[in-house]
Design a protein that fits this description.
By secondary structure, this protein is mainly β. It has a single domain, classed as Jelly Rolls, CATH 2.60.120.10. The chain has one helix and nine strands, in the order E-E-E-E-E-H-E-E-E-E. The strands form two sheets. Strands 1, 2, 4, 7 and 9 form a five-stranded antiparallel sheet that branches. A four-stranded antiparallel sheet has the order 3-8-5-6. It is globular, with a radius of gyration of 13 Å. 33% of the residues are buried.
Length: 111
Amino acid sequence: MTTPFAQSGKSVVFTAATSAPTAVQATNYEGTSLSGRYRICNSGTTTVFLGIGRTATEAANNATVLSSTSQQCLPILPGAIEVFSFGLNSYFTGITASGSSVVYVTPGAGI
């Protein structure tokens, strides 16, 4: 049985551009057992290469436009809404090859 996504913390937002902005942290409500999943929404019209990390620096280092070599980023297509599992209270930022996109991240549980 699948469980619908349930929010377990405040949503955060950043604007991905050709230079990644300062990473934001999506934290879970204190004492909640709902943790480890994040709903990611790319509301823009360009692909965002998401950088995720345990620290802001790690997330920034992972935000790299995917090239012919392997990278530690996660491409999020334009208009996509995805749910992923990452570490508790992760940091997020993103970069684009061109243009910009607003990205929303909400911590929670479920799919």
